[in-house]
Amino acid sequence: MQTALRTSLPETELPSRANFVPHARVVHEERTAHTGGRPLSIRGLRKSFGANEVLRGIDLHIPAGQFVAIVGKSGCGKSTLLRLIAGLDEIDAGSISFGGDVQPEDIRVMFQEPRLLPWARVLANVEVGLGRDRASSDAHARAEKALSEVGLADKRDQWPSVLSGGQKQRVALGRALVSRPRVLAFDEPLGALDALTRISMQRLLERVWRDQGFTAILVTHDVSEAVALADRVLVIEGGRIAHDVTVNAARPRQRGSAELASLEGSILSHLLSADDRT
Amino acid sequence: MSLIDSVSLPRSLRLPRLDGLIQWIVPLAIIAIWQVASVTGFVSTRVLPAPSDVVLAGWKLLLSGELLRNIWVSFWRASIGFLIGGSIGFAFGLANGLSQLSARLTDTTLQMVRNVPHLALIPLVILWFGIDESAKLFLVALGVFFPIYLNTLHGIRTVDPQLIEMGRIYGMSDGELFRRVVFPGALPSIFVGIRFALGIMWLTLIVAETIAASSGLGYMAMQAREFMLIDVVVLSILIYALLGKLADSTSRVLERATLSWHPAFQKR
């Protein structure tokens, strides 16, 4: 307890984003040395499946802690890019680097499906996210903390089958967050949710990103979601980055504001004009 | 799951005390009708003895110790045969579900053997083992092997690949992946195999004991037929029914205990 207090002292001096949520400061004590995101550099990235070349040379730099959204038509390669970043598929050519050594626990993915183990209680599902630290003595405590960050502390002993779709996705988010990742990749995590649940999940994503400062990469087909959440929107077309749009709107963002709507409109027209060309 | 379980009545209509008894109404009614038919002479006692006579025969055999001894012998043969065949089937199911090499090596052979009715081997088995214990154990083991093998294999192969990918992403070792993802995912299917196997276990044992044995329930029934003791024959058949029900209930209890996460086993 003593050491925990000491490490948290300098933390309170900083104009921390964490002040929003009371227990976010607790989070910072734990991995003070590690908190914050990792930068991401991609050089000449290519990927083919058989004769089909999905990614044709991607060059991209994402500064640490940035929230990047990737949009594009289905089949444009956006999910492939995300899977390569997360290390789920082999790279054909090019490189991805995270500015130094990374542990597997530093990079996490969240999918469209929650992918919870149906035979494990909610808390045990979150513990899965600890990776190699699963066996450590504080695994329970860390999982409980992650669960309360996503607002589901009271569901810890439930089976996943009794949760709603949005709650399952929040457990999946808790599982992704529990190892304090420094890069978090989202593959259409809200695609299967209803409109209202989506909006509250978007707020939750934004909040945990602000609290923890990881680098966020969100693949989505929903342009309004992209402009509402991201600092920067990348439009992918034919396996290349066709547009790189910076979103300067101040946070917290007003959903449906004129500024976001016009940005959304211009990105959509990019996407649709690409459609006309093909 | 029986039909009664799946059609759930509104709570107010349910009589909780009768819930456990309701399944016994039909068997008890059949016995009552049977008793009446026998007593009134509608059914000749040489065709079918009255239930009361069957109970009486059972009581006599119980007092002489013969009944319990035969039940015990049959039960022992069934369990040992089940354990041997079940574990080998489970081991092959695991190996072929987890390893492509093992599946390519043995699956075709096993599928060919599976299509031979195992009871067709009885003459051969008698030649090999005589009417020894090992003959019965061999047949039971062979009978339970296939349902457990096939369902274990099927269970492992149909585990959600997305969950396996998830496990890999979160750094599970092969052992951990098996323990936390593959095995629990295959368990419902393994239980289906166990329940099939329990049925085949009794069937095989009884046929084997009827043809070649010097003890056990099947032997008791055959002896009784030789002496025209039809009440003992009927008694044996009824005991088979009860033992089958017992085996099924045991596997249900196990299912409920291990699959409590499954929506189908959660209390409504």
UniProtKB/TrEMBL annotation, chain A:
One Gene Ontology molecular-function label: ATP binding
Pfam families: ABC_tran
UniProt keywords, alphabetically: ATP-binding, Cell membrane, Membrane, Nucleotide-binding, Translocase, Transport
PROSITE patterns linked to this entry: ABC_TRANSPORTER_1 (PS00211), ABC_TRANSPORTER_2 (PS50893)
Segment forming the signal sequence: none
Residues in ABC transporter domain copies: 40-263
SMART domains on file: AAA
Translocase among keywords: yes
The protein's role, per its UniProt record: Involved in beta-(1-->2)glucan export. Transmembrane domains (TMD) form a pore in the inner membrane and the ATP-binding domain (NBD) is responsible for energy generation.
Family per record: Belongs to the ABC transporter superfamily.
Name of the molecule in the record: ATP-binding cassette domain-containing protein
Automatic annotation (TrEMBL), chain B:
Pfam families (alphabetical): BPD_transp_1
Assigned keywords, A-Z: Cell membrane, Membrane, Transmembrane, Transmembrane helix, Transport
Regions crossing the membrane: 21-43, 71-94, 115-131, 137-156, 200-220, 227-247
Coiled coil stretches, renumbered: none
Domain ABC transmembrane type-1 intervals: 67-248
Family note: Belongs to the binding-protein-dependent transport system permease family.
Record protein name field: Aliphatic sulfonate ABC transporter permease SsuC
Phylogenetic lineage: Bacteria, Pseudomonadati, Pseudomonadota, Alphaproteobacteria, Hyphomicrobiales
